[in-house]
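Worked Example 4.2. Consider the chain below.
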Amino acid sequence: MNTVAAKGLIFDLDGTLVDSHRAVELAWARWCDRHGIPLSDVLAICHGVRSEETIRRLAPQLDVAAESAWLEAVEKSLNDSVTAIPGARELLCSLPDDYWAICTSGSLPLSMPKLDRNELPLPRIRVTAEQVSRGKPDPEPYLLAARLLGLAAPDCLVFEDAPAGIASALAAGCRVVIVGGCRHEHERVLGNIPDYRKVSYRDGRLSLPI
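Applying the procedure from the previous section yields the following structure tokens:
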């Protein structure tokens, strides 16, 4: 176990606080069937990225806003399959309200019900897809999250699972803990954790199994 000091924490949502893998992939599979696009092309680029940016890359001829809204409606219908990452509820409930934020590529109407239905606390500070002009892997989302916390990005510790999100956090200047098996070598990537069951917080410090 290692102890890490941080003035604030920023969490991605999908794959980091909740396991929404099944819902996300089923929604994209239905969209691909609708347009005759190979699902493998989508899965290669969609994780951690705003849906409109994935659509724009693969099918720029479509009405991106309308397609993104259709996809969001499908994913919302599948939210019953979304579950909390083990230990996430206990960790979030132990944190002061002004100490942490969520920074997600999902919209507010899509994202917050995933927390609510899994009895995860709703963040006072959050950055969702609607709030930024450039999504992950651009640094804008994490720079905004740090600013809303009243902190400089290097003072924040980010929890992320996807390459696009990791790149976004690093480009913003944050330190990163990776949740899950993604590997990314960088001096500000502190390590990987499988979940939060062995993570604890006390007085601005985290105990982490890294």
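The radius of gyration is 16 Å. The chain has eight helices and eleven strands. Compare this with Example 4.1 before moving on.
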